[in-house]
Amino acid sequence: MGAVIAAVLAVGVLLALRLPTLRNPILNVDEADFAVEAGSLLDGGRPYVDFVEKKPPLIYVAYAAALSLVGRYDLPGLRLLLLSYVLATALVLAAIARRLSGSRAAWIAPPLYAAMVSAGPPMDVHTANPETFFLLPLLVGTRLALSKRSEGPAPGLSRLLAAGAFVGIASLFKQQAGIQLPILVASLLVSGAGAPTVSAPFAHTPEPDARGLWRRAWTHPRIRAAAALAAGFAAIWLATLAVLAAIGSLGEFFYWTVEVNRYYIANGNNLPDSVDRFRRSLWLLASFLPLVWLAGLGGLAWHLGRHRWRSPLLPLWLGGSLIPIVLGGRFFPHYYLQLFPALVLLAAAALAALWDRAAAARSWPRALVAGGVAAGLVAFTGVRLESKMSLFRDPEILAIPHATPRARALAAYVREHTAPDARILVWGYGSALYHLAQRRPATRFPYVTYLVGAVEGTPSWWSPFHPSRSLEIPRAWTLFFQDLERHPPELVIDTASAGYLAFTKFPIEKYPALLQVLERDYERTQIEGFTVWRRLAFTRTVASTSAAGSATKTAP
After folding, report:
1. pTM
2. Is the peptide bond before 110 cis (omega within 30 degrees of 0)?
3. Are residues 310 and 263 in the same domain?
4. Is residue 400 domain-resident?
5. Which residues contact 491 (CB under 8 A, 6 or more apart)?
6. Per-residue pLDDT tens over the stretch 315-335
7. Domain of 97, in residue numbers
């Protein structure tokens, strides 16, 4: 009964916090990125060839599958589907809590998790981002790596292979999820918990040769368990690489997900800026549910004091999840979603321990006081959370900066003046405009940051005191002009002139090769504050069609 109540509470929390923002067409430009890239897949395109991104392929496949069900441009419909996905993630987390901390922690975990991943800036925590997608397989893999019961037999090698495979699937949404593999391996090696029993024990006398030493290591339960986890993880990645090779995307996959990610991390923020961003982002997120953060940190101290390193999974999980968050020093709030499962498990364990202590109290007045305090804290948290989340109920606030009224008006103009199968070019961070206009990009780049050296989340994007020329990727320019020759866009939209997404630093006039093409084949106009270049042949066709339509209307 407790599990059912916990699930119902989790559903209520998800609906209360997420439904008010559900109908917004775009909550974050990342959603628009993935939607545009998924559209290329739905048109038969190949990842990393017909569109480029620095993330693994499964996020685009998931978007393509979801949008094929709800509609190609229906991100609210995708987020509606995501509610059941987040609920499933919460229930798997409850299973882990039950295994680690008992039934009461399992009842606390689902609504607590639903609140943690929904309380915060909606443009970070309500979006269909890779973190939200990868947490479900990551948690399934973690649960499989644990024994079924705390006092039960250890999982077998086949179960650990499956655990590694699920973590591998999680890392195909975003590379950062792969940190869970060394976390689980370290937990196995440090504690030995969860290591499968094997028929060959350690020999009591040392082997004299290297072959004997290797045999001894391999027959050790912990080593075999770790190897099974790694093998399951590797199998998923090898299968994925084989598919990419079969469709001719393997070389480009390595370039964009390895080389460009190395460039992205290496050109992150400096240490003072990183520390400041970390402080501000952590304070922002903790301000929504401070009591849960305090309970999580208290749970960590309680766990270490009670178990020390005999049960190291939760401390390793919490600390290990911070590693991908700090890479590059950007600290976008949605990065912290990876931290929340371990934090919730620690908080649930601490709250369950307090619950047990209150239930064991022989004094009814003391128990009533404890219950009253708990109810008061829950009420205070709910009222405070409602007050903070109400700031994000205005759809126009949520539309900043990607779907502002001017951007929506420009998108409507594009839809009215181009055919549905037309291609356009947005000069800037253009994925949201492609999505709003419901038109395909003329190039493989949903945004042109790689061309101009605008590294996301750093001053190279917006600061005139941080030169960007040295950060340009020359190969991106080569591919860009190849695509323009293959698919000449009907319209070219320069977002720098409108200051859209702070792209003012990179007007087209700074790039003579592109400007020469536009001045030769296009004519310039202004639409909603954006500079729009219309292709001359396209302009003549539109003018002829309009004239023919007028003649038909006036003919006797």
Report:
1. 0.90
2. no
3. yes
4. no
5. 414, 417, 418, 422, 424, 425, 532, 533, 534, 535, 538
6. 999 999 999 999 889 999 999
7. 2-200+209-391
